[in-house]
Amino acid sequence: MANKSGYNYHPSIASYQLYSYLCAVKKRYFLYFSYKGTAYHGWQVQPNGISVQEVLIKALSTILRTELELTGAGRTDAGVHAKLMVAHFDLETDLPSNFDLVAKLNSFLPNDIAVFKIVEVQPNAHARFDANARRYEYHVITSKDAFRNELATRLSHQLDFEAMNEAAQTLKEYRDFTSFSKLHTDAMTNNCDISHAGWTKQGDEWVFTIQADRFLRNMVRAIVGTLLEVGRGKMTIDDFRKVIESENRCKAGTSVPAQGLYLVDIKYPESIFI
């Protein structure tokens, strides 16, 4: 049967083509991995330096023999580490069954990036927007250690960690954290719901742990830098409150170095997983 243009049209072929198109709906996968951020210009692809995202995209595209995009759960700055990070990517097929993709990736990737698992999720699941909690740690050492220069921040002066803990608890009373945000970002709001914040001693390290539904750019490093002002006795608990209430980044302390910061967990609702 020919149409007006002379093209031979066959209903059964057209139906099969439509069926094939509908069946070619992409499948979405979450990639769970960790990285030591020392050698990278952060998570996101940068024009002036190597990024974790760039390295992972190259590895996945090479092994799967297809160009793909990788969307992370958030951004980490240059030198920041991740004990657990999540990113999603799409494929038009199932994962390969003839080899272990996780093992293949780990053999392809450099030693400072390690993949844990890959899981299928709902087609509209999003690594960034569906995350309902994120947790960070900031690691501080108080003595010189030649093996941890890139993994923690060394502070040589005495700190009042009890006062710093008391100040940290006040964070849960507030929502607007403009005072701890990098200036001129594209964030629609500076509101965050902090569910946990506090310092603990782990061996010979002091670790600040903070969990919230979302974080602003540079937020954790600015909070820690301001808490250190409390620990040094240069700021009272009331002063710390006033910094938050001022909604002015200039009132807060200096951001601490990147090497002590770790993204350690990201939580998602069970409903997005298949």
Give a description of the structure.
This protein is an alpha+beta fold and 274 residues long. It has six helices and nine strands, in the order H-E-H-E-E-H-E-E-E-H-E-E-H-H-E. The protein folds into two domains: 12-129, Alpha-Beta Plaits, CATH 3.30.70.580; 133-266, Pseudouridine synthase I, catalytic domain, C-terminal subdomain (Alpha-Beta Plaits), CATH 3.30.70.660. Strands 1, 2, 3, 4, 5, 6, 7, 8 and 9 form a nine-stranded mixed β-sheet that branches. Helix 4 (161-169) packs across helix 5 (219-231) and helix 4 (161-169) packs parallel to helix 6. The two termini are 44 Å apart. Residues 2-10 and 16-24 have low confidence and may be disordered.
The number of distinct β-strands equals 9
Sketch the topology as an H/E string, one letter per element: HEHEEHEEEHEEHHE
Using the alpha-carbon principal axes, give the shape.
globular
- Sheet with most strands: 9 strands, mixed
* CATH topology title of the largest domain: Alpha-Beta Plaits
How would you describe this structure in keywords?
274 residues, alpha+beta, Alpha-Beta Plaits, nine-stranded mixed sheet, 9 strands, globular
Topology:
Layout: H1 11-23, E1 27-35, H2 52-64, E2 71-72, E3 81-91, H3 101-108, E4 113-121, E5 133-141, E6 153-154, H4 161-169, E7 194-202, E8 205-212, H5 219-231, H6 237-246, E9 261-267
Parallel strand pairs: 3-9, 5-6
Antiparallel strand pairs: 1-3, 1-4, 2-3, 5-8, 5-9, 7-8
Helix pairs in contact: 4-5, 4-6
